[in-house]
Every structure is written in structure tokens, then in C-alpha cells.
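mind reviewing this stuff:

——
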Amino acid sequence: NRELDLISQSFLAINSSLELDRVLSKILAAIKNLFGVVGSSIWLKDQHTGEVVCRQAAGLQRNVVKGWRLAPGEGIAGWVSAYGDSVILPDTRQDMRHFGKVADTMQVELRSIISVPMRVKGTVIGALQVVDKQVDRFDQSHGTVLEALADASATAIENAHLFEQAKRENAERRRAEKKLKKNERELQDKSTALKEVNTALNVLLKNREEDQVHMEDIIVANV
């Protein structure tokens, strides 16, 4: 009952914001409450490079993990993101897919990993991963709970992406409108300047005609 209550609270928390960083932080906070592990992370695919990037991490030396990039299929998160299958790894020493450089940089040996794919409309956008120093820390029940969290997280992340895209498009539209108004003002100023120049030219032409008539009168008088 406590676990179900925590899951329900986690779903509500995950979907309570549209700001991506806050959504990611809430996802990891939910995992901490449910699993009580040493670390967790969210890996998202980079659509331009195909790499898998750690967008947010929690727990041991999270700043080391955050921002780390894995090639497609590299590491457990990269493998899950590439193939779309969940992985429950009882012992990292027994699986060649484990990418040890991250743990080496952290100077902490992570022995158990569980990683599940996050999908939006059937497309894998990344992986939700939980790690621990204890061997055989996770079982299928953890996988089931994490997969449910991953589904909710993927939806929340997609909504946050759409919200950010809408904000960018709105900002671009405002910039375009501002630029258009600026151009309109410049055109109006140029039009006013041209009218003033035209008025001055008309005055000059009129004066020239008057001077010409006066000169002709003088010539006729002299003749």
C-alpha cells in the first residue's frame, strides 16, 4: 500500500510541471523515494548526433554523470535506448555491456543496474536508469515499477519539450513582430524624409522658374 501510494504521488509530482529541468528533478526524486538507491539518472537521445546524453542525475557525484555522452548502443543506457528493451543487471562485473568509465571517474564501483526505455508514441527517446553498490539489488518487481515511472516520465518530458518549443516559437513570433514594427517605423521615417525632399525640390523648381522669367524680362528690357 505504501509503495502504491508513493507511485501515485510520484505520477502526480512528475506531471505537475512543464519546465523540463523541474520535471527531470521530480522524476529522480520519485525514484529516490521508491527505491532508496545510491544513484539514478535520465538519459535522452540527441536527435542530431544519435548519442545518448545524461540530462539529469541524482545521488553519488551526480555532477560527474550529468552531461556524459554515450555512443549509440554504448553502456547499459545506450543499449536500452538503442534496442528498447529493459535491463536488470545483477552484477556489472558479469556483463560486457556495462560502461565502466563513468564509475571509474566517480571512483565508485556500481554493482547493480536497472535501466528501462522511455517511449513517446512508440519511439524510444532515452532510458531511465537506477544504480546501486550492492550486488543483485534489483528484481523484476523493481523493473515493473520503474517501467511504469518511465512511461509517465516520457509523457511528462514530451509535454515539457512541446511547452519549450511553444515558448521558443512564441518568442520568435514576438521578435518577428518587433522587427516588422521597426521596419514599418523606418519605412515611415523614410517616407516622411522623401516627402520633405520632394517639397524642397518643388520649391527650388518654382524659384528657378521665377528666376528664369525674371531673367527673360531683363533681357527683353535691355534689348
User: Anything to note?
Assistant: Residues 28 and 58 are 6 Å apart (CA to CA). The radius of gyration is 34 Å.
